[in-house]
Amino acid sequence: MSSILNSYFVKTHRLEISITIIAIVLFLIYFFGATHVFTRFPIYRAFMQSMPFFGIIAISATFVVTLGEIDLSFPSIVGITSLTFGMLLTSTDGNFFISFALATALGMFAGLVNGLLVTKIGIPSIVATIGTLFFWRGLVNVISQGSGIAIVDEADGTWHHMIFVDKLFGIIPAQFIWFVVLTGLMQWVYRYHKFGNHIHFVGDNKASAQMMGIDVDRVKIIAFVQLGFFSALAGIFTMYEMLYFWPTQGSGLMLTTLAAVFVGGTSVFGGKGTVYGTFIGVLIIGSLESGIVALGLSGFYVQFINGLMITIAVTIYALIQKRKN
Amino acid sequence: MSTELLKLENIYKNFGNVKVLKDVNITINKGEVVALIGDNGAGKSTLIKVITGVHRPNSGKIFFKESEVEIKSVSQSRKMGIEAVYQERALCDQQELYRNIFAGREITNSFGFLKIRQQRKEAERILRDYIGFTSKAITVDSQVMGLSGGEKQGVAFGRSLYFNSDLIVLDEPTMGLSIQETEKVLNFVKGLKNENKSAIFIDHNIIHVYGAADRFIILDRGEVVGEFLKNQISREELVKKMIQLHESGKIKVE
After folding, report:
1. Angstrom distance (rounded) from CA A21 to CA A97
2. Residue of B54, B78, B113, B118 best to disrupt the A interface, most CBs of A under 10 A
3. What percent of chain B has pLDDT over 70?
């Protein structure tokens, strides 16, 4: 037993192992506490349907958090890009390519603005992105005048609708498959691509990274831009699922998304993190509400237990970190 | 063939209204170890940051291997063959050793993905051949935070040798090191000469400087106020000059 605990794999994957154990315990509680719900498929289908909407953003946000930065504006980037997508899709009579290209380009532009404010102007990211959070949401309200956009006629039953949210084999939501594939891809970039490597060094120690010849500003800007892109993508997934845009779209995502990143084990101090952990964090945070209700507790417990989970998880990580030093 | 490796001509550097470097002229020859000495605020750090591309001078010319160059960034100066070894900022603590050695010049395929196996293999070679790490506790997968100050310096030195730099810039290489580790670092600096590599280093400790350097350049408030070859000046005289400078703000050059 002790040789397993001291093995190289365990030593280098403490965070990933801890988060996996927390998730398994949680799902065992669900399973034994609400057997009638968790032995049947529909609950899992519901999870697979809803988790990707914030999960995709959480995976992407892991890069920004690893930098030691934060982005609070993504809920509004989801809003403005979804609005753009809906307006374009309805006005072009369902031209997917134009709508998709311009909506994601706008998402990247919003990310670029965040990146430039943080690097070139020098505003701390938490402050800069509060500004853009209000700005983009405000713009959504001004343009939409508070009303939604139905895309049923343009999207329902089309090939692009199928690609985004159809059920594979009639049961597995396509968005979940996308989510898993993206997680794998982003984990690969995070650990084994030059960009991911630079993310770690900049988050670890900005001055050292600079001395080693890493272009710190460029790395940060790209991180914010990719988060803008994936926020737009998550918005588009939601649009296809709901076939409707509503002006508050995205605004509920902030806390669940960031909670998934932190519960997943990515350090708020920067330099260390795990995309796999964020994925498990999404499974935990995304399952809490239904899980708690299925267990027979009232919905009033949801926030309470959510808070408990986050606090326990980050405490465990802090203790692991302390032991290392 | 000229022996000049690096030449700075009339370098000025201001930060806002503060003139940090005023008309600095220095030359570093091939195979020579030059020590920059001077009090805090004399401009030593700024000067080496101009050389390594962290700062760009407001005016002045830089020649490297006899051709005029503009050093725009750290990665450019590294490509030219100038490598910096900074005491505190040489490495990133939470990252593995092999990643630190290749940070900023990763070995990648054409899609930018790291060749992890090759990096680890090369890193192992650096640890063994250039640094002489034999301890089993330190592997290429170790995080840097577990290393002592001297070991960190060793890694940074090994990295500069591996990338075959011509000029190694050392910022306070012995600060905070034990006596034994200081000895190792100074031996390393002396060893550079055998490989016909040059070094420029800053150290507050004149005893260290004197033992390792061939030439001393004294900076005071942004200006070069004195320059001596080791065979022109004894250690005691050098110390006396520094105290004199400190007290009067002037230096007597006979």
Report:
1. 42
2. B113
3. 94
Reported pTM:
0.85
* Residue B43: both structure tokens together: 């401009």
Q: What letters, b where the CB count within 10 A reaches 16 and e where it falls short, cover A257-271?
A: bbbbbbbbbbbeebb
- Domains of chain B as residue ranges with CATH: 4-91+185-248 (3.40.50.300)
**Residue range B147-206, pLDDT digits in tens:** 877 778 778 878 887 887 889 888 887 777 778 778 877 877 877 777 788 889 888 777
A18-24+50-324 adopts what CATH topology? ABC transporter involved in vitamin B12 uptake, BtuC (1.10.3470)
**Residue in A193, A214, A215 nearest the CB of B103:** A214
Q: Which residue is associated with the tokens 């995309």? A: A275
Tell whether the model's pLDDT for residue B254 goes beyond 60.
no
Q: How many Cβ pairs within 8 Å bridge chains A and B?
A: 79
**Counts of helices then strands in chain B (DSSP H, E):** 8, 10
Task: Express each pLDDT in B123-137 by its tens digit.
Answer: 888 888 777 666 677
Strands B215-220 and B223-229, by their bridges, are antiparallel
Domain ranges within chain A, ordered by starting residue: 18-24+50-324
Question: What token pair was written down for B253?
Answer: 């050059």
Q: Considering only the beta carbons, identify the residue of A193, A272, A324 that sits closest to B113.
A: A193
CB of A120 less than 8 A from some CB of B:
no
Under a CB-based contact definition with an 8 Å cutoff, are residues A77 and A111 in contact? Answer: yes
Tokens of A248: 């508050």
CB neighbours (10 Å) of residue B175? 16
CB B217 within 8 A of CB B35: yes
